[in-house]
Known about the structure:
This protein is of the alpha+beta class. About 30% of the residues lie in helices and about 25% in strands. The longest helix is centred in the middle third of the chain and has 19 residues, at about 75-95. The chain is globular, with a radius of gyration of 18 Å.
Amino acid sequence: xxxxxxxxxxxxxxxLDLWRAKRFDRGVGMTDKRRIMTRRIFSGGEFExxxxxxxxxxxxxxxxxxxxxxxxxxxxxxxxxxxxxIEGALREAGCTMADVVRVNYYLPDRAEFEPCWPIxxxxxxxxxxxxxxxxxxxxxxxxxxxxxxxxxxxG
Length: 155
């Protein structure tokens, strides 16, 4: 006997009516209501204009903050600077670091991640997000850590 199962595609974090409208509205691709719900936040960073992205996008009840690097001589200095930039973007979106639900850390050398742990523990405190650390190359060799977060809008 062969059993067939219908697998429901993963539905993005949108109300079902908006997801259906986007999926089936082939002419526009997105409803006007959905466009209004999207807000972009720019920080004026040097790569925003060069690459064509913004610091954060507020959409569907979430704040998606782009990968962020910081200035400094040490990985811990860069970590603190990146977190300060992220905190500013979240504040502009109406969030705090306590609203962060997901964080990705990118480092060219995974051995440099451990010195950042106390900083991250201090910043995220009693509301630690789900986290991933990936060892990879960054946009410039001078950068030693890049941090990307997703936060839930309060309320």
